[in-house]
Amino acid sequence: MSEQLTFMMGEFAAEFPCDRLYAKNHMWAMPTSNDVIRFGFSAYAVRLLQDVYFLEFAVEAETILKNRQEFGNIESKKAESGLYAPMTGQLVRINEQLLEDPSGINVDKYGEGWLMEMTGDASEMLSPDRYIEHLALAWDVAQRTIKGQANAIESNEE
Amino acid sequence: MVSANNGNTPSNGLLVVVSQGQSRSPEKRELEETIATIAAGLPNTTSLVVPNLYDLAADSQSVDKMRNWSGPIVILSWLFDRAAFWVLDRNEIRGQLAEVLLLNPDLLADDEDEDEDKDKEDEKAADRVTSISARPARNIYSIDMRASGSGEAFEVEFRRILSVEQLDAPTKDVLSLERFLNPTNSTALSMDGSGRLDILSNAPASHESPLGIVPMRMDEHPARRWYPVIDYSRCTNCMECIDFCLFGVYGVDRGETILVEQPDNCRKGCPACSRVCPENAIMFPQHKTPAIAGAPVDAGGFKIDLSKLFGAPERDEDPVAAAARERNEQLILAGRAAVEIPDPTDSKSTATMERKGVAPERKRDELDSLIEQLDALDL
User: Fold this and answer.
1) Are B319 and B360 within one domain?
2) Of A20, A108, B136, B222, which sees the most CB atoms within 10 A?
């Protein structure tokens, strides 16, 4: 991974290798072979999640997923989220190792910590440059969301 | 790991069960161990560590141990207290949901509302399944381990429960943790050469392990499961759920009471039936939305929900529409034909909507308003 782009999330420098594409839902997409595209979480997603403790797929390989269809969920020390398909297509493989130990996502997000492989139409994937542009907008919304939720949780604790 | 001495379980005294979380959070594991160890050292108490309660099959050893216990039980889990209680109930480990003072702090803001609810007459009291089929009198104390990160808080609560159950007086057979840690002359306990208490040959009758301070463990590794859990203190046996679910999860027993007959037919991740239940009696304890997982009404989220940022589609739908959509998604995943979304003018769905009419206000939580804000931001 020689070339990469950097996006500043506050003080934190999130890095994005240029050898792959990115989905708007903050997964990276890397074509492997036979039209199979491997997906994983981008540095932006991993930074928001932080330490991942739990990962669950609600579907199995072979499942046809629609773009943005919920197919599982992820939980970290601080946050939780559904998992949403980055594109329409067929799920061909799940990284079984992550089910045993999801911390692979934190350890090697762009390598061994990949999430799943799909076949389908990847034409909506963004180039690294376009993804950085998308992040500028997304980061703004993310900060407001997190601040809003954190306030809500605090006021509940009072 | 089965403890060396797991033969005959005495079924009197207090049984403290620690249900391990599914997640690999080291903090959670450490707290589980601390709590189990504290419980094992208390008088008249047996401490048992089991895998995630919700994943246990009816024929599991852990369930068997609990089912054979006739005394009071404390269940500690990472589930909402009500969810854990009704998971036990479906496994025929039954009793009365007893008052717990150690509560999840995120839920405390609701106390006043809950008291108001209690004061209200339950118009449907007579229809509730628990009114028709009463549970035994023994107490089950369900504690959400998110209540505190400190072992001491749990010990205080255990001691309070022992006192309520009149099990706090140590008998001569029982060694309390204090006496173990701080032996005094007056207790005159003999020590072996290494300074340990020499009681191995005379193990206290009401403890499982030789020293009485080691929790029992069950050597089971159940796969993750997903199924609805019914709160029979709310259920009125209206049969909306059995009508709605097209996967054969629900059935009725000989007394024609609704039950989750084929839990493993349930579609992983699908909470649709809980949305159509007019009494909010159906829980999916592992669902990320607290209201569906069995949290008290209006409880906020405990973790930041990033779904909206990670691509969750924007939706503006009522619970009935959400349920119909979720069911259709599952039908398609199962290779079956989707069902037409019910027409709101149709008499049956109108009836459902009306009964649901009381619920929307209560089901709203912080997340709803947040999502509205997010929608407004045009993500």
Assistant:
1) yes
2) A20
Q: Is the ipTM of this complex over 0.90?
A: no
* Last residue in a domain, options B156, B189, B217: B217
Domain co-membership, B204 together with B284? no
Asked, for residue B111, whether it belongs to a domain, the answer is no
Number of structural domains chain B divides into = 2
B100 inside domain: no
| B85 and B194 part of one domain | yes
Do the domain assignments include residue B35?
Answer: yes
Q: Say whether A141 and B374 touch across the interface (CB within 8 A).
A: yes
Q: Give the single-character DSSP code of A77.
A: S
Measured between beta carbons, the chain B residues lying within 8 angstroms of A23 are: 311
Q: For the domain bounded by A4-146, which CATH number is listed?
A: 2.40.50.100
B284 and B160 Cβ atoms separated by less than 8 Å: no
Residues from chain A contacting residue B301 (CB–CB below 8 Å): 149, 152-153
pLDDT tens figures, B345-369 = 444 443 343 333 333 344 455 555 5
Alpha helices, H only, A50-127: 96-100, 104-107
Q: Are A26 and B310 inside 8 Å of each other by CB?
A: yes
Asked if residue B36 belongs to a domain, the reply is yes
Q: Decide which of B186, B217, B248 is a domain's last residue.
A: B217
3-state secondary structure of A155: helix
Residues on chain A touching B304 (C-beta within 8 angstroms): 78-80, 145-146, 149-150, 153
Q: What is the pLDDT of residues B175-223, one digit of tens each?
A: 444 455 445 554 444 444 444 444 433 334 444 444 457 899 988 999 9
**Contact state of B288 with A82 under an 8 Å Cβ cutoff:** yes
**Are B176 and B325 in the same domain?**
no
Domain map (residue ranges) of chain A: 4-146
Taking residues B4-18, report their average pLDDT: 67
- Rounded distance, CA A153 to CA A147, Å? 10
Give the one of A48, A70, A71 whose C-beta lies nearest to B306's C-beta: A48
Taking CB atoms within 8 Å and a gap of at least 24, the contacts of A145-151 are A145/B304, A145/B306, A145/B308, A145/B309, A145/B370, A145/B374, A146/A48, A146/B304, A148/B370, A148/B373, A149/B301, A149/B304, A149/B305, A149/B366, A149/B370, A150/B304
Given the DSSP bridges, would you call strands B304-305 and A79-84 parallel, antiparallel or unpaired? parallel
**Same-domain pairing of B265 and B341:** yes
For chain A positions 19-48, those within 8 Å of chain B (CB to CB) are: 23-26, 45, 48
> Are B161 and B273 members of one domain?
no
* Six-digit token string for B210: 């030789």
Residue B208 sits in the same domain as residue B242: no
